[in-house]
Amino acid sequence: MRAPTPSAAIEMTLPDSNELFQTLDSLASQHTHIMSQKLQNSKQELSHMYSLYSTHSMEKKLEQKMQEVNVLKDSFSHAMTTRLNVAQGQVLNLQKMIESNHPKFKSKKGFAQISQDSKVIDISTLEIGDEFLAQSDKVCISAKVIKKENII
């Protein structure tokens, strides 16, 4: 290329300043866009990692286990209370049965408890010659069956 003057030669070899500013603006805009995109991706990755950490952290697992323990503790406590109440009811029923079958607590005139070999038995099971105890609320008598008659 030929230029009429050295100034013209410099103008011809150097790019237009407006073009340079436009190129710089374009590059700055691209750079800003790329950095913004990278920043957004990093934020999303950080958010995802935080979410994973929150879900799988030792604190979260410990909290879940503590809730399970509390549920088991409450369940165990309820089961033991229920079992204890049932057992107390059974003890009371057995105590009442013992008291109701003990001759000492039976005060009807003419009635006695018949036992043989330390077991309460039905009088109809005795045979002639059998020895037994007749016990009322005030006295215990050793006896022997001499005669047996069935009453209709």
In short:
The protein is an alpha+beta fold and 152 residues long. It contains 3 helices and 4 strands.
Which ranges are low-confidence, i.e. pLDDT below 50, for 5 or more consecutive residues?
none
SSE succession? HHHEEEE
Distance between the termini: 151 Å
Question: Portion of residues in helices?
Answer: 55-70%
- The global form is rod-shaped
Return the average pLDDT rounded to an integer.
Answer: 89
Structural class by sheet pairing and helices: alpha+beta
> Helical stretch count?
3
Number of strands: 4
The amount of beta strand, in percent, is 5-15%
Strands of the biggest beta sheet: in what spatial order? 2-1-3-4
Can you tell me the number of structural domains? 3
Radius of gyration, CA atoms, in whole angstroms:
53 Å
Biggest pleated sheet: 4 strands, antiparallel
Give keywords.
152 residues, alpha+beta, four-stranded antiparallel beta sheet, 3 helices, 61% helix, 11% strand, rod-shaped
SSE map:
Elements: H1 6-13, H2 17-56, H3 58-101, E1 113-116, E2 119-120, E3 131-135, E4 140-144
Antiparallel strand pairs: 1-2, 1-3, 3-4
How does this structure look, described?
This protein is α+β, with helices and mostly antiparallel strands and about 150 residues long. About 60% of the residues lie in helices and about 10% in strands. The chain folds into three domains: about 15-55; about 55-100; about 105-145, no CATH class. It has helices spanning about 5-15, 15-55, 60-100; strands spanning about 115, 120, 130-135, 140-145. Strands 2-1-3-4 form a four-stranded antiparallel sheet, with no helix packed on it. A hairpin with a 2-residue loop joins strand 1 and strand 2 (about 120). The N and C termini lie far apart (about 150 Å). The model has no long low-confidence stretch (mean pLDDT about 90).
